Amino acid sequence: MTSTKPFLRALAGETIIPPPFWLMRQAGRYLPEYRATRTQAGSFLDLCYNPELAVEVTLQPLRRFGFDAAILFSDILVVPDGLGQHVAFKEGEGPVLAPIRSARDVDGLDLSGLHQRMAPVYATVSGLSKAIPATTALIGFAGAPWTVATYMIEGSGSKDFANAKRLMWSEPETFARLMNLLIEATGQYLIQQIDAGAEAIQIFDTWAGALPETEFRRWVIEPARQLVERIHCERPGVPVIGFPRGAGILYEAYVTETKVDGVSLDSSVPLDWAARVLQPKCTVQGNLDPILLVAGDEALDAGIDRVLKALAKGPFIFNLGHGIIPPTPPENVARLAERIKAFKG
Ligand code: 1CP
């Protein structure tokens, strides 16, 4: 059965003009109505676990810009929270976690409370599936095991991932145990999102590009391959988009070996190479530099046109190469939406 939703048709391999579009971090601090709801919610995690308000902030950018997909409003770090690790979001500083640095710390994590803790997230998904427009698709998501593990081990964002890499190389069994727990937890979590109404899944591996080739194959490609296989096998027909940010030429091995339905490209991926090498294998998504949405004007228009010209001839979903940043003027997002909708091929 062919979907009536352009985003899902593109993921099934159709070429659609104008292409469907949505933007990573389309809900967030660049929108005044998000900041207002955020204040009402309390902490950022309170917002993630409040289905009524999480539905509201997910819908806010759809009302303004008419995106073809809604993405569940939550965060990749609810999974560590659901495994019993202490997670907090400090105002202006980002996430802070009680770091996992030893075999004993890994022993302290527990899968058994995950779904109870994630119940409000599943409620948000099911609320959204009733609230979004009929032609809009609903994306569920999770962080990929490697990216989530970096936050769990470092205890915060990091520049060089020194603790995570040290654990990976110096205590490979402990690291593997953590990663296997995350693969299982993430698989279960995504299946539950699908059962609550998610129609497609995106796996965010934001820090994939920090790993050398051997470790990239072991801890980026292999976990994604297992997650895609599990979703395709247990919930056939639900497409998966992978985002191995910074993978460089390893994007090709990632696509071939994981069997993702779509791949999200960061802004450094050359457009002609993506059209020639990746697009014959799966739907591509991306990859406008998010700072062009801050710059605006002709630079923004030219950037949009370059991406459309290179990728809209095949299966394609327009997006950014990474998330919208807070200083982005909403008018520039409106400008982008209008320009894509006016594209005639
Ligand atoms: O105060 C606030 O409002 C917090 C800002 C914020 C928001 C709006 C955070 C904290 N997370 C989010 C929402 C979010 N995070 C979504 C919602 C859906 C949408 O896209 O609209 C999604 C998909 C994420 C995923 C996420 N969180 C990723 C992967 C994608 C990416 O952007 O790279 C990562 C790495 C995170 C961790 C995270 N959460 C928040 C911050 C500030 C960070 C980054 C910390 C760092 O720099 O390391």
Automatic annotation (TrEMBL):
Site annotation Transition state stabilizer: residues: 75
Binding site for substrate: 25-29, 75, 151, 206, 322
Reaction catalyzed: uroporphyrinogen III + 4 H(+) = coproporphyrinogen III + 4 CO2
UniProt domain Uroporphyrinogen decarboxylase (URO-D): residue ranges: 139-155
Predominant subcellular localization, coarse grouping: cytoplasm
Molecular function via GO: uroporphyrinogen decarboxylase activity
Functional pathway: Porphyrin-containing compound metabolism; protoporphyrin-IX biosynthesis; coproporphyrinogen-III from 5-aminolevulinate: step 4/4
PROSITE patterns: UROD_2
Keyword list, A-Z: Cytoplasm, Decarboxylase, Lyase, Porphyrin biosynthesis
Organism domain of life: Bacteria
Gene3D superfamilies assigned to the protein according to its UniProt record, in alphabetical order: 3.20.20.210
E.C. no: 4.1.1.37
Pfam families: URO-D (PF01208)
Compartment annotation: Cytoplasm
Family: Belongs to the uroporphyrinogen decarboxylase family.
Function recorded in the entry: Catalyzes the decarboxylation of four acetate groups of uroporphyrinogen-III to yield coproporphyrinogen-III.
Subunit structure: Homodimer.
Name of the protein described by the UniProt record: Uroporphyrinogen decarboxylase
